[in-house]
Amino acid sequence: MLSQNVIDAIGHTPLVRLRLGAERGVAVYAKLEMNNLFAMKDRVAKQIITEARSTGALAEGAPIVESSSGTMALGVALVGTALGHPVHIVTDPRIDRTTLAKLEALGCEVHVVSAMDAQGWQGARLTRLREIMAQHPGAFWPRQYENPQNPAAYRHLAAEILADLDTVDVVVGAVGSGGSLCGTSRVLRESVPDLYVVGVDCVGSVLFGQPDRPKRLQSGLGNSLHPKNLDHALIDEVHWLNDREAFAATRDLAREEKLFAGNTSGSVYRVLGAMADRATPGTTLVGIFPDRGDRYADTVHSDAHWAEQNVDRLPLATVPRQVLDGTEVHSWSFRRNRADAPRPAFVFVESNTTGTGMSALRIAAEAGYEPVLATGDSARYAGLEETGATLVDCDTNDTDALIRAVTKAFEPGCIAGVSTTSEFYLVAAAALATAVGLPAQSEAAIAGCRDKGELRRTLARAGVGQPGFEVVRDGAAAAAAAARLGTPCVVKPVDDSGSTRVRRCDSPEQAAALAEEIVAVRTNGRGQATAGRALVEEYLDAPEYSVETFGLDGDHRLIGITEKTVTGAPNFVESRHIVPADLPDDVVREMERTVVAALTATGLGRGPAHTEVRLTGSGSAVIEINPRLAGGLIPELYRLATGVDLLTAQVRHATGADPVLPGGFARYAGIQFLLPPEAGVLERVTGVERARAVAGVERVTVTATAGRPVAPPTDAYGRIGHIIAVGESRAAVAEALDRAAALIAFELRAG
Fold first, then answer.
1. Which of the 8 DSSP states describes residue 161?
2. Distance between CA atoms of residues 518 and 496, nearest Å
3. Contact call for residues 666 and 642 (beta carbons, < 8 A)
4. Edge to edge, what strands does the sheet with 680-686 contain?
5. Is the pTM value of this prediction over 0.90?
6. Could you report the per-residue pLDDT of 355-397, keeping only the tens digit for each?
7. In sequence order, which residues have a C-beta less than 8 Å from that of residue 346 and are 6 or more positions away?
8. Cis bond upstream, residue 488 (ω within 30)
9. Mind spelling out the 3-state secondary structure of 300-320?
């Protein structure tokens, strides 16, 4: 069109189709607001200033003062000086030299504040702006963050989109003042009532409930203040990207679509890609691309700037993670704002078969997630229906099949967390988390702990205290190993759980027989192939403890130490736990150092770990490392003793939220497992109510039903109930457990 003057050239920007989504029949367009004379805010400056002149709010030749470090400054400079007004721009040291040069070339006076105040750079700039206004009576302040003419300016942008397209289903735009996205979408909804509006913000911006981080590197979007022009009711979904993700997306935009832009456009491009992946064929998406890349040449597009600011230290998500309202984010995440929007999914890969697994599903639901259980056999889980969990039926022993089934069931990015409460599916859960773009524990580190032989070798290389050991594949090798290590020794499978086939052997012949038994077993209780190897290790006749820790970015936090009691030889069935263990401070510190060294050696760095140790005369010796929460209802003991639920911490951590961990113990808690005294068929259990009445007893639970064959247990699966007690001292807890256990009797008949 023919322009009568330079201001008439504002707007009428091109709409170009991007390559995103084309292979799926999804149409994605970029509205190139960067093709305005300076950038998108040219529209706002034109609308606000011309309206102010027409109403008399801005007198002929009166000064204009605005706070901006980017494109609004350029727009005000363009329109204001073109219409004969002196223009003062208040900015901060983040302003790029290209923008500064343009402002000075246009004839503006630029005021750069020197330091942030309590409200960040925005607050410091506004303080300086008010000083300038006081010095220039009659000066006009456009107030881009609250002036209704800001969003009104985008009526023209919306009209241009509708003139070029028959319809639009999704619009994506960056949010700073709120004007562009809210103004455009409000008008578009007059013609397209079902328009889905997606806002793009940055990590460290307060606009959508995140904590303020004034040192964020992105410009053009985000804010440390709450602008009045941001209408949250208009926005259906909001995405946050950190500086690295936004900068990387901007470079990808140039390489993939040949658009040299700023980080606002790059962030919109990245979110457009995610929305296109979720969209059904035939969907039309439009992204608003605000600014060109010339003023970002020394920052976003500069390797030197990346190195100087250590941008690569930040996480780089390839897909967004759906989060709940109130979740603090650190990398690419999104939140859906519509009341009828589906909840983010929390996927558990199988579960243990105790109450802990079902409790974890309920905790995820109570936190606001859709609890999901991926399982090959839902019938094994008592109480599953009551959790309300969604089931994904698949072969969880086939990692590829698991990933296919879960990713088919849920849209990309809509899985907020992945975890498991089952020892046997830790590696599969980590693989699934990685496949859907979520942070995960190292699969290799988990596998290296699950294989007790490999763990022994790792700890030996690291010089961590442990029993002497040998890994064998047959009875003859086990007998020879037992002779070298000395008897008694312990023989166990390298890859099972719950003390299954773990026994003390008093001769090489016993070691050989048990090793042959172990290697003959081809599948475990979950149908997984076994390793076919046995571990022969030195028997340490010393007290047993477990050390509960939680890894946060490689920093292993000590939760507590559990005192453990096991049945006598030849089996090692855990019969009692008490927390916290009564140990001298120096012993606690030594045990913690040993366990942290062991965890570090394995490469574990995220989430809970349960490390079993024996306290020998020469210090702590690591028996096993389990990269999960403890079993045997130990998390429940910690909840009773500290007031903090470790299952909740596990769920929060898996979703990227900061877990609440115990800060100490308010009391002691213990559990006594009920063990059948002899073999037979259970007819009844007596004394339960009297046991429940014992002072300090929290609960008594019998898990075996009448008619079930029972026997003295050889592993954890033979236990038939438990007593839980609390008290102000270890002695009080032990006494309550003893008294309650003495009241319970099992009536058996011959089987």
1. H
2. 10
3. yes
4. 709-710, 680-686, 745-749
5. no
6. 678 999 999 999 999 999 999 999 999 899 999 999 999 999 9
7. 364, 367, 369, 370, 371, 372, 415, 416, 417, 418, 419, 651, 654, 655
8. yes
9. CCCHHHHHHHCHHHCCCCCCC
